[in-house]
């Protein structure tokens, strides 16, 4: 079989590669932060780690997957698809520049933030134009289009707030009220954008991963609705309307509980024999519940904000991304070598020992680093970074083995 790598893949492999490289880079950055004088404050190392994970890893993977999800879930063709795909490339450049500036020359971060914002606006323009077509379709497609559009709107708001904060850090004159934006920016990004996206997309992707779907009709609608209102109230409350903070957090908490219960029930009934992605799903919702507890404590005045952000990003979002890498990522790899109609199961080309080692290493890494952040123990934070890097290396070796196996099948 002669492979043609110039064809347009349903998910850009380069974008997923950048996401995985960002994942790998996040662990050394975490170790450097642990050894710095600002380890227990929101210093440049912490901000660099947060954006390496939230933007370089999770958001890059999400934007790449949405190139396939948007037309697949809404039954419409992309409008301005070239703009969307080029925006993903520009987004990667912006994130790389932003993180590098944080670590080497903080005064230049506004340039990286500006490029990232422009890329998000370009991608969102193409996505909104595409989703508008689906509003004339069937009821299910209309609902999905509205949900995806709302989630992307939160991404745009997050990027706008991020650019304003970057400009302030870089020394540009900004209005005084922007001093209240960091907590709002974090809530919009972690819950309004990433968590809402995972809630929505996993309602469709959990079936191929587990072989079953939710038994509770309308559970995903309840989760999405409660989370949407909760995020909006929480963000507004953190921006300067305190009475809205706890009602928003309460609605988010209910959404988290429903989602976790539903996901555990689905995985419990799984029939697909490939268990590793299912284990990552369970780990993700477990860390989500832990993150919700830490978030509530942070709102109550506990000094848990760094541990809270870490658990939500590396634990909840990160483990859900890993679950999809071991399924959707490997499926993409197989289609590159075997064609878009290939139906080879991921477990056929993966090494189960490496899969389970990576899973265990990631859970030890998250637990160790989270406890280190809560107790100000640099040794635990460094140990977490080391285990995280080991888990990432095992995952990369596994994906390389899967690639070699796919090439052998193609031959």
Topology:
Layout: H1 13-35, H2 44-74, H3 81-104, H4 109-134, H5 139-169, H6 181-210, H7 219-238, H8 245-268, H9 276-299, H10 305-338, H11 352-375, H12 378-410
Helix pairs in contact: 1-2, 1-12, 2-3, 2-4, 2-6, 2-10, 3-4, 4-5, 5-6, 6-7, 6-10, 7-8, 8-9, 9-10, 9-11, 10-11, 10-12, 11-12
Explained architecture:
- The chain has 411 residues and is mainly α.
- It is 79% helix and 0% strand.
- The protein has twelve helices and no strands.
- Helix 6 (181-210) crosses helix 10 and helix 10 (305-338) packs antiparallel against helix 11 (352-375).
Main attributes of the structure:
411 residues; mainly alpha; 12 helices; 0% strand
N-to-C order of helices and strands: HHHHHHHHHHHH
Mean pLDDT: 91
Q: Structural class from helices and strands?
A: mainly alpha
End-to-end Cα distance, whole Å, is 6 Å
Q: How many beta strands in the DSSP annotation?
A: 0
Helical content band: over 70%
| Strand-residue proportion | under 5%
Report low-confidence residues grouped into runs of 5 or more: 1-7
Task: Give a quick rundown of the structure.
The chain is built from 12 helices and no strands.
